[in-house]
Amino acid sequence: MVKFVSLATLVCALSVTTVSAKEMQDHNQMMNHGDGHLMDMDGGMVMGQNTDTLPGGCDKIAATKEITVHAGHKYSEKFPGTMFAFDQQEFQFEPCTKLTVHFINEDEIRHQWMMHGLPKYLYPKGMFHLEVSGPGKVSGTLILPPGDKTYLVHCDIAQHMEKGMKAQLKVGKGSEDLPSIPGVTAAIFPDDYSGRPYDPKLDAPAPSTTVAAPVVAAAPTPAPVVDDSIVSGTTVIGLAIGFIAAPWLAKRFKGMSAGEIIATVLEQVAHGVGYVIQLIGKLIKMVSGKNVIALPDK
């Protein structure tokens, strides 16, 4: 009876282990969607794949290299305050190297190995991107550009980079070290694990000193310069018309009172308006070809 119970317990333990352990999937049958974009329906993806096109400035492939990068929560244990990490935080290769990256995700979630700053004429959006959802492996190839430059490598899933999953890749001598690379460079905003209680005098932000802007007396606004050339011209034209029309007006209104002069002027204006209306009517008749009733003369 004891042997039977022991055997049953062993079988149950093996069954639980088999069910709980998820198989590591190798994404090596991805569909090619063109422009270096490969993916499958199981969560594997490569973007920016380039196996044969040399970047500008590279006469030939200088070297052919392969690396294997692991990603997961367990690699962050050596970096306090982080949650995720790669197993390597720094890479270095000579310019124009043909590099194949084998990316292995050991967590039950999605991780990426994304490289930024590559020439956009060759790599869409200037990046090379490997992605695996759940435990799995994906591989991709790129050809590194010439020159000495440091490139950011990280996981672009929300908060994964902020929680430690980032690295740097130097081509040639590199340009500079990037900040906040775990184990390589100091954090810009380091975490405090001292356990020291909050001290208002030491931890309070320094008061900002507002510098009053100097009062500058406003310069007097210059008076607008009026260009009286038009006024002068109009005045001259009016005076000329007045001198020319004065003899005719004097003869026309001779012996009339002020009321009679006003009535005569209004009558002339009415005749002028009627004449204009007649001209418009004739013009409409010519254009439309229809009979237009002529307005009666006053």
From TrEMBL:
<feature type="signal peptide">
    <location>
        <begin position="1"/>
        <end position="21"/>
    </location>
</feature>
<protein>
    <recommendedName>
        <fullName>Copper oxidase</fullName>
    </recommendedName>
</protein>
<dbReference type="InterPro" id="IPR008972">
    <property type="entry name" value="Cupredoxin"/>
</dbReference>
<keyword id="KW-0732">Signal</keyword>
